[in-house]
Amino acid sequence: MKIKSELLVHPTPEQSKEIRIELNEDINTRDQDLAAIKEWLRKEPHLPNEWEDNPLMTFLRGSSFSLEKCKRKLDMYFTMRAACPEFFTNRDATSPALREILKDKLQGPALPGVTPKGRRVTICRGLHLNLDSQQIIDALKLALMIGDVRLVEETVGVAGDIYVLDAAVLGASLLGKVSPSTIKKFMICVQEAYPVKLKEVHIINTSAIVERFLSLVKPFLKEKIRKRIFIHKELKDLYKYVPREMLPQEYGGQCGTMDELQEKWSQKLIDYRDWFKRQDALIANESLRPGKPTNYDELFGIDGSFRQLAID
């Protein structure tokens, strides 16, 4: 689809040179790599025959142009799209359920600019203390929807992602509604199925209950990601990692307000309504997979909840 806006400001030409080195991207051979991945897709009976060039190139960048790693990521991406319909179906941002999340419950915009090192920053914060279990799933769905838009629109490539999590409204009653199975599925998506190079996670406005919840989530994270989580007692400590001026006004920056950024991203998701609908058919078909089909129970293998957190 046609990219209409500069909601995602791309790295400068100077930054892009450094990013290409970091991502192992050779402008002389990347089209050959893209052609090789497209040919591989056509030959895999259980995967879609074709996909758009932009997201495939984003997967190559996220795999440091390792064709084998890219193939594994793409296979897992289409596998998770089939395995997690709660995340990858009914992705209409005009629906009442998703509109309520976007407007009144949670904000999670990717910021327009990039850091001096060429990294994209996303800020997530809750607006309401009370979300039910389905709304939590829908909030994670929206996060992956933004991720899918970025697959298409990060046409230059960035040097990884930084996430800032504002935990001000997260309490025991809310966190107790989060099921481990939902968290594990989401973490598999982020770590295994998306071409995300997660560089840092910063948690601000934290509390003892949030830090306890984090200790329960950490087993679902890769060791290298666990080491990249930083908890800040004061907002000014964040500025050591993310330039203050590129943050929203609520966090001392100059890139507009969270409400303004959220509205722009909400409209972007609405603009992609037809695109999301077309993606519904692009899933792995386990009945056609060569060898052993993926066993979803073995892939996820967890049940229960974090209800022990629901203690004041």
Main traits of this protein?
312 residues; alpha/beta; 46% helix; globular; disordered N terminus; disordered C terminus
Describe the structure.
The chain is α/β, with parallel strands linked by helices. The chain contains 14 helices and six strands. Strands 1, 2, 3, 4, 5 and 6 form a six-stranded mixed β-sheet that branches. Helix 3 crosses helix 4 and helix 4 packs antiparallel against helix 9. It is globular and about 50 Å long. It starts with 12 loop residues before the first helix and ends in a 12-residue tail after the last helix.
Shape: globular
Assembly category: single chain
User: How large is the share of residues in beta strands?
Assistant: 5-15%
The major pleated sheet works out as: 6 strands, mixed
Straight-line distance between termini: 49 Å
Low-confidence parts, pLDDT < 50 over ≥5 residues? Answer: 1-5, 304-312
Average of per-residue pLDDT values: 91
* E-strand count: 6
